[in-house]
Amino acid sequence: MTSLINVKICGLTDPADVPAALFAGARYLGFVFFEKSPRHLTFGDAAFMAATVPMGVCKVALTVNADNAMLDALTEQVPLDMLQLHGSESPERVVEVKARYGLPVMKAIGVAGPEDLAQLDEYGRVADQLLIDAKPPRDAVLPGGNGLAFDWRLIAGRRWPIPWMLAGGLTPENVAEAIALTGARQVDVSSGVESSRGVKDAQLIANFCAAALGEPAPFFD
Ligand SMILES: O=C(O)c1ccccc1N[C@@H]1O[C@H](COP(=O)(O)O)[C@@H](O)[C@H]1O
């Protein structure tokens, strides 16, 4: 039976992370292009990993306030299926990026309180998907990928104009509850499937996907 939940494993750093995520059932793989991140990839390393991803699995490039020169080089050198904009890109910039690269755009929105929810409708008019993440602390180096959750009750029962993903502090232990509470059909994880910062763990990836998909987790010896 096909599961109704799509999982994105974000921040792959090792070529072995690709088969680990595919075997676990991930439908989206995220590659980070942000130098301050421990998951940052060179275009060459990302192209090598992306070449091993079968058709039908979405290869997502995560960027933060990237300019056209950076995105030109990225899209020329790495085969991609989607751009994830995880900075303070305006709705106008989302429109511009979509038109310039011809790729679907997923806009990340940081949520901490009810005052952050108005942007969901605004970006819902221009993006192809929304990614709802915890708003980073004021002094955070990274605008995401911090392993922080937000109060999921803020978005429970919401009507969404376009497809969306839930992210932020998800783990194998809490993802089923997060799905049940928010009604998310897509979930995104980075820190929660790492053995140390920036290092993905095949068992944790399998546990996360199994928990999201409502299946028993395989055990790797
Ligand atoms: O993962 C990163 O290093 C990163 C860097 C800059 C912006 C976003 C980043 N990650 C995204 O944040 C979500 C949530 O991460 P976490 O599970 O809470 O660690 C992640 O899935 C990425 O989409």
Automatic annotation (TrEMBL):
Record protein name field: N-(5'-phosphoribosyl)anthranilate isomerase
InterPro entries per record: Aldolase_TIM (IPR013785), PRAI_dom (IPR001240), RibuloseP-bd_barrel (IPR011060), TrpF_fam (IPR044643)
Keyword annotations from UniProtKB, A to Z: Amino-acid biosynthesis, Aromatic amino acid biosynthesis, Isomerase, Tryptophan biosynthesis
Domain of life: Bacteria
EC number from the UniProt entry: 5.3.1.24
A single BP term in Gene Ontology: L-tryptophan biosynthetic process
Entry keyword Nucleus: no
NCBIfam families: PRK01222.1-1
Reaction catalysis annotation: N-(5-phospho-beta-D-ribosyl)anthranilate = 1-(2-carboxyphenylamino)-1-deoxy-D-ribulose 5-phosphate
Gene from which the chain derives: trpF
Annotated family: Belongs to the TrpF family.
Organism: Sulfitobacter brevis
Coiled-coil intervals, chain numbering: none
Record-linked Gene3D superfamilies: Aldolase class I
A Pfam cross-reference name: PRAI
Domain N-(5'phosphoribosyl) anthranilate isomerase (PRAI): 7-209
Molecular function as annotated in GO: phosphoribosylanthranilate isomerase activity
Pathway stated in the Swiss-Prot or TrEMBL entry: Amino-acid biosynthesis; L-tryptophan biosynthesis; L-tryptophan from chorismate: step 3/5
Enzyme class: isomerase
